[in-house]
Design brief:
The complex is a heterodimer of chains A (78) and B (938).
Chain A: H1 7-18, H2 24-38, H3 41-53, H4 60-70
Helix pairs in contact in A: 2-4, 3-4
Chain B: E1 18-24, E2 27-32, H1 37-43, E3 69-70, E4 88-91, H2 95-110, H3 126-133, E5 160-162, H4 172-181, E6 186-189, E7 196-199, H5 215-219, E8 225-227, H6 228-233, E9 238-243, E10 252-258, E11 261-267, H7 280-284, E12 299-300, E13 309-310, H8 313-331, E14 336-340, H9 346-360, E15 365-367, H10 374-383, E16 401-405, H11 409-412, H12 414-425, E17 429-433, E18 442-443, E19 446-447, E20 450-452, H13 459-472, H14 478-484, E21 485-486, H15 488-495, H16 502-509, H17 513-525, E22 529-533, H18 535-538, H19 543-556, E23 567-569, H20 576-581, E24 588-589, E25 593-594, H21 598-608, H22 620-628, E26 634-638, H23 642-645, H24 649-657, E27 661-666, E28 678-681, E29 690-693, E30 698-702, H25 714-724, H26 734-744, H27 753-759, E31 761-763, E32 787-788, E33 807-812, E34 837-840, H28 842-847, E35 855-859, E36 863-871, E37 879-883, E38 911-917, E39 926-928, E40 934-935
Parallel strand pairs in B: 1-4, 14-15, 14-26, 16-17, 16-22, 17-20, 21-32, 22-23, 26-27, 27-28, 33-37, 34-36
Antiparallel strand pairs in B: 1-2, 3-4, 5-8, 6-7, 9-10, 10-11, 12-13, 12-28, 18-19, 24-25, 29-30, 30-31, 33-38, 35-36, 35-38, 36-39, 39-40
Classes of the chains: A mainly alpha (78), B alpha/beta (938).
The complex binds iron/sulfur cluster (3 copies) and FE2/S2 (inorganic) cluster.
Residues 176-177, 181, 183, 185-186, 199, 210-216 of chain B line the site of one iron/sulfur cluster.
InterPro entries (chain A): Formate_DH_dsu
Protein name (chain A): Formate dehydrogenase subunit delta
Pfam families (chain A): FdsD
Chain lengths: 78, 938
């Protein structure tokens, strides 16, 4: 049931579904950029926790995106 | 201000240059071709007596009071129906016409009850005025002859009376209902002396097609159609010009008062959005502002199970500040936040987000626009570079093809709906894309060329299929695309894929391929084609994708950047546009600039003296999730009823119950207040001073008609909370807040209260390049430079029908009610909508043994509610429909956590449900299936 799924997991997988038409690496970048632009830091943290604990629950391209999210961002200042 | 009476030029303006020269009573005047002699005279300062003419309606020529003499012409033509000709010489005051006019008046008066002194229209009656103007001194026919003086009044409408004994059969009401409103509810029955006005076929107003817009009342020159409030309270003596607070059309009104008592709201002729028209809500449904249910004193309580305790403002404000700070001390700066309201003024919304960013020190500010139009912000920003509609409302008068997608303008945006219908009657073609057969599909004198009755949630597949047709049939506006856009090739390649063809998508969308092809051709080949859309686009898991899909289509066909075209969101609440503009999203400062932009943050940091966070904060659904996981514990809810309007209500309730502090500011103790620890009473729009921004980016002044009944303006309260939290915030006047907004927001640079008082209203961007505003956007270039084609893959929603939940529920609104109904339910509008009903197709009803009017249970995987069934073939089989105006029904008990992938705008429009005949136990109970808790029973 959707209710037992972590919201961040559900949302990240849904974003990935909407970038499905974009080729691999670029999709991961687009997802990471989207998450940086629109997600509160605690949500990003929770997504990374999901990636650590239950990687299987995440879309493969979301997993790649989480790697990108772990890297520090220069431009955003945050 | 004294009572404002706008001048009446007798007949409508004709477009074009003033090229025809005429002389009226020796006064020369130049007017555009086609102008009537009456209007030309009025422009020369000469008022010709008239009764059946008024400048909101086409001339009719029935009363013959306006006769004139024209040199070189025989007889005495009616000036209202006679167009000017070059070098015409007109005489309006000759013994001959004066005598004719007196004869006409004499006839009218002989069949009129001469109770002027006690008549409700005394002092505001054109018949009375004209009797004076024509110098009527005697009535030779006597009053004993055959007359209509005994005709019975019709008091069926809750807001206005019809007294046929006073009717002069001028037919202004009939024409207003047709020409202005487009409803055609009235007719003149009979001929000659027997002619009389009648709603429908001899029905009462209430039983007729009348939608109570008030246009006929406005047009009536006598007391025949009169607001009941005028009958009861007397003629008003002064006016205050303000803006309706009910919907995104943003109609201007004259609030007319007698002393300090509001007598009536009359649509303002100079209103940029409405040009003198109104709907039942703005015109009549203002009684809630003085409803006894309003709470006027602040209240606090320790626990939500405690009774409320009335306190003084100071204690309430200190309590909020102390508790917010205490939460932050324990759980960190990001553990609190606020939700601002699209019903509040720009100035109020601005100070709320300022309080959050500067005093709370985080970006946890979101607005209720999250749950309606956030995908518009995202989609239009991505493609065009600005999160706003492209046109002014007047632009629709130039459209040749109008495509209405997921919107129901005649109910949701009635005054704009009337404008649109007028254009459709003039011959523009209409395409409706909606699962429901909305009224526009077929109504008097309007018929859609195509109704694409798609399955809910398949918008993107339909728009891609239309784009497929445009691209593969060579209908692209190549030069527009080459000059002004980027990303076309990749997009064109994508939409041209066979899987996006109308034939391939037909099984998904349920729309016959031929219909899609014909609609796409119609849209692409029209000289001007415009798209208007509403929540049926945005409130989907692919809302943002669909907004981009429409933008793509408009760019591909070159339908952007001039009158008659564009992509236009029809905004729900009155200030959705403004609340978004004002920096109410957790990722954006005012004017849609991202918080991560150092240069933008610096502007605010320097002015506010605080460091701002560069990371986005929580959006409303994220706030609820974070409340449940314990990291978000204090919330200020400004003027919104999230515990009724938001989806998946048991999740919302659980989140609110989990919080340490919920502060609610509202007019009434709403559903959310049940979870609140502090209640701050709010001010109605009649007590507010500030601005609203409507769906066409028009900034309108809202002027206080009365002092705040609570003793404080809402912006003051917010400032005092921030100050009590250690961040001093104060303004003397909301005009100062607008000046600050203009200082920090490039698109608002030129806006000030002085400018608005001068011009009446202004459409942003308003700055050095456009000092008087911008009616049409993206004229020579897109705001982002090149318009960007975005690939819009169709991703089906996760919400699937199953054998347990085999039907799809979609939600909407109706004309007479507004949002959660807190206001409209407290007015005479309940006469039209006493309860929410569930519309279902006869086949689905029959399969379930449901008859029209039965109580049925409506269940989804998250909750269930009970409501009355209405069997209707407006919905296709398999789809059911309801509104969400009444808390007792709690329609959102059944809506789910699904949301738009990009913005988290909830997917209200698609919920898999089951409908069954309810057991005749309690009617109207809503409960969540997981907890079994009864919720929302008044
Ligand atoms: S109130 Fe509006 S809809 Fe009703 S009869 Fe008058 S003009 Fe027509
Ligand atoms: S009701 Fe008023 S507007 Fe209508 S025909 Fe009679 S006098 Fe004229
Ligand atoms: S159309 Fe909207 S703004 Fe205009 S009067 Fe009706 S509710 Fe108010
Ligand atoms: S006003 Fe011209 S005929 Fe009535």
């Amino acid at each position: 049931m959707a209710a037992t799924v972590q919201p961040e997991e559900r949302m990240a997988n849904q974003i990935a579904a909407n970038f499905r038409h974009v080729p691999g690496d670029r999709a991961a970048e687009a997802i990471a950029a989207h998450i940086r632009l629109f997600w509160d830091p605690r949500m990003r943290r929770r997504l990374l926790e999901v990636a650590d604990r239950q990687a299987d629950d995440l879309d493969a391209v979301v997993l790649v995106a989480t790697q990108l999210l772990r890297q520090p961002q220069e431009a955003s200042g945050g | 201000m004294a009572l404002i009476k706008e001048p009446d030029f007798g007949t409508p303006e004709r477009p074009g240059e003033a090229t025809v020269s005429v002389e009226v009573d020796g006064m020369p005047v130049k007017v555009p071709e086609g102008t009537s002699v009456m209007r030309a005279a009025a422009l020369a300062g000469i008022d010709i007596p008239k009764l059946c003419a008024t400048d909101s309606l086409e001339p009719f020529g029935s009363c013959r009071l306006c006769v004139v003499e024209i040199d070189g012409r025989r007889g005495t033509p009616a000036s209202c129906t006679t167009p000017v000709a070059d070098s015409m010489v007109v005489r309006t005051q000759t013994p001959k016409v004066e005598k004719l006019r007196q004869d006409v008046m004499e006839l009218y008066i002989s069949d009129h009850p001469l109770d002027c002194l006690t008549c409700s229209a005394n002092g505001d009656c054109e018949l009375q005025d004209m009797a004076g103007v024509v110098g009527l001194r005697q009535v030779r026919y006597g009053y004993e002859g055959e007359n209509h003086l005994d005709a019975a009044p019709d008091l069926s409408n809750p807001y206005f009376d019809f007294e046929p004994s006073k009717c002069i059969s001028c037919s202004r009401c009939v024409r207003a209902c047709g020409e202005v409103q487009g409803t055609f509810a009235l007719t003149i029955e009979g001929r000659g002396f027997d002619s009389k006005v009648s709603p429908g076929a001899g029905e009462s107003f209430m039983d007729s097609e009348c939608v109570s817009c008030g246009a006929c009342v406005q047009a009536c020159p006598t007391a025949t159609l009169q607001e009941r409030s005028v009958v009861e309270l007397g003629m008003p003596s002064r006016s205050v010009i303000t803006t309706c607070a009910y919907c995104g059309v943003g109609c201007s009104f004259k609030a007319e008062l007698r002393g300090d008592e509001l007598v009536r709201m009359v649509p303002h002729k100079d209103g940029g959005a409405n040009d003198g028209h109104s709907c039942v809500k703005g015109r009549f449904a203002f009684g809630y502002a003085t409803h006894p249910d309003r709470v006027l004193k602040p209240m606090v309580r320790e626990k939500i199970t405690d009774p409320w305790r009335e306190v003084e403002w100071d204690e309430a404000i200190q309590t909020v500040a102390r508790k917010m700070r205490a939460i932050q001390d324990t759980y960190g700066p990001s553990s609190v936040g606020a939700i601002s309201s699209s019903r509040c003024t720009n100035e109020e919304v601005y100070v709320v987000q300022k309080m959050v960013r500067a005093a709370f020190g985080n970006n946890n500010i979101d607005t209720c626009a999250r749950v309606c139009h956030s995908p518009t912000g995202y989609g239009l920003k991505q493609t065009f570079g600005e999160s706003a509609g492209t046109q002014d409302f007047r632009s629709v008068a130039k459209a040749d093809v109008i495509m209405v997608i997921g919107a129901n303008p005649t109910d949701g945006h009635p005054v704009f709906g009337s404008r649109m219908k007028r254009r459709l009657r003039e011959g523009a073609q209409l395409v409706v894309v909606d699962p429901r057969r909305i009224d526009l599909v077929r109504s008097p004198h309007v018929e859609a060329a195509h109704h694409l009755q798609l399955k809910p949630s398949t918008n993107v597949a339909v728009i891609n299929a239309m784009a497929h047709v445009v691209v593969t049939e060579g209908l692209v506006d190549r030069s527009f695309v080459a000059e002004r856009c980027e990303g076309f090739d990749a997009w064109a390649e994508f939409v041209a894929l066979p899987e996006n063809s109308p034939e391939a998508t037909e099984p998904i969308t349920g729309v016959p391929a031929a219909e899609v092809r014909a609609s796409a051709r119609m849209y692409a080949t029209a000289p001007n084609a415009a798209i208007y859309y509403g929540l049926g686009v945005t409130e989907h898991s692919q809302g943002s994708t669909m907004v981009m899909g429409m933008a793509n289509l408009a760019m591909a066909c070159g339908n952007i950047g001039r009158d008659g075209v564009g992509v236009n969101p029809l905004r729900g609440q009155n200030n959705v546009q403004g609340s978004c503009d004002m920096g109410s999203f957790p990722h954006e400062l005012t004017g849609y600039r991202h918080v991560s932009d150092d240069a933008v943050r610096t502007v605010f940091e320097e002015l506010w003296g605080r460091t701002l966070l560069p990371d986005p904060g929580l959006r409303i659904p994220n706030m609820f999730d974070a409340a449940i996981d314990g990291s978000f514990r204090g919330l200020f809810v400004h003027g919104e009823d999230i515990a009724q309007s938001d989806p998946n209500l048991q999740h919302v309730s659980a989140a609110l119950e989990a919080m340490d502090l919920v502060v609610v500011q509202d007019l009434f103790l709403n559903e959310t207040a049940k979870f609140a620890h502090v209640f701050l009473p709010g001010a109605s729009f009649l007590e507010k001073d500030g601005t609203f921004t409507n769906a066409e980016r028009r900034i309108n002044r809202v002027r206080a008609v009365m002092k705040p009944k609570t003793g404080k303006h809402e912006w003051q309260i917010v400032c005092e909370i921030a100050t009590a939290m250690g961040y001093p915030m104060s303004y003397d006047h909301p005009g100062q807040i607008m000046s600050e907004i203009a200082r920090v927001t490039p698109t608002f640079k030129g806006v000030s209260f002085e400018l608005l008082d001068d011009l009446g209203s202004v459409q942003w961007p308003c700055n050095d390049e456009a000092p008087e505003g911008t009616p049409t956007m993206h004229v020579d270039a897109f705001v982002r430079g090149k318009g960007k084609f975005a690939v819009t893959a169709y991703v089906p929603t996760d919400e699937r029908t199953t054998s347990r939940f085999p039907l799809v529920l979609t939600t909407g609104r109706i004309l007479s009610q507004y949002n959660v109904g807190a206001q409209t339910r407290r007015t005479g509008n309940v006469a039209w909508h006493a309860e929410d009903v569930l519309e279902l197709h006869p086949l689905d009803a029959e399969n379930r043994g449901v008859a029209d009017g039965d109580m049925v249970s409506l269940a989804s995987r998250v909750g269930r509610t009970t409501l009355r069934a209405r069997v209707s073939d407006r919905m296709p089989p398999g789809v059911v429909y309801t509104t969400f105006h009444h808390p007792v029904t709690g329609a959102n008990v059944v809506t789910t956590e699904n949301s738009d992938w990009a913005t988290n705008c909830p997917e209200y429009k698609v919920t898999a449900v089951q409908v069954a005949l309810a057991h005749p136990l309690g009617r109207h109970a809503s409960e969540s299936s997981e907890t079994g808790r009864l919720a929302g029973v008044d």
